[in-house]
Amino acid sequence: MTIEEIRSEDSIQLNVEGKIDTFSNDEFQRAVLGSFQTSRNLIINFEKVEHITSIGLRTLILGQKTASAKGGKLVVINANDTVKDIFRVTGFDKLLIVR
Domains of the chain by range and CATH? Predict the structure, then answer.
C-alpha cells in the first residue's frame, strides 16, 4: 500500500493505493490520524484501493470520530464497487460520508 498526501488550505487529501489489511493498516492509521494534527478535514481517495478489511474499517471509524471531535469531516471519495459493497454490507455507508 502507498499513501500520497496533498495539503490544501482547509483539508488534507490522502490518495491511497493497494489493499488496506492487517499488514498495511498501521501505516494507514498513522496517515489518517496524523492528518488531524494539522487539519480538521480529511478526504481519503480510494480510487486505487482494491480491498479493505475490518481493521481498515476500524481506522475509518477512528478517523470519523476524530474529525467530529474537531468539528471537521472525513470524506471517502472514488471507492470502487467492491469497497462500496463492503461499506454497504457493514453499514459503514451510513456512518461515513462516501462520495
Answer: 2-98 (3.30.750.24)
Distance CA(70)–CA(94), nearest Å, equals 20
Find cell 480538521 and name the residue. Answer: 40
Rounded to whole angstroms, how far apart are CA atoms 36 and 52?
A: 21
In angstroms, the CA 8 to CA 6 distance is 7
Residues 6+ apart with CB under 8 A from 66: 33, 36, 74
- Tens of pLDDT, residue by residue over 43-75, are 999 999 999 999 999 999 999 999 999 999 999
Q: Could you tell me how many residues make up the chain?
A: 99
* CB 94 within 8 Å of CB 74: no
β 12-20/97-98 pair status:
unpaired
Q: C-alpha grid cell for residue 31?
A: 496517515
- 3-state SS, 12-53, equals EEEEEEEEECCCCHHHHHHHHHHHCCCCCEEEEEEEEEEEEC
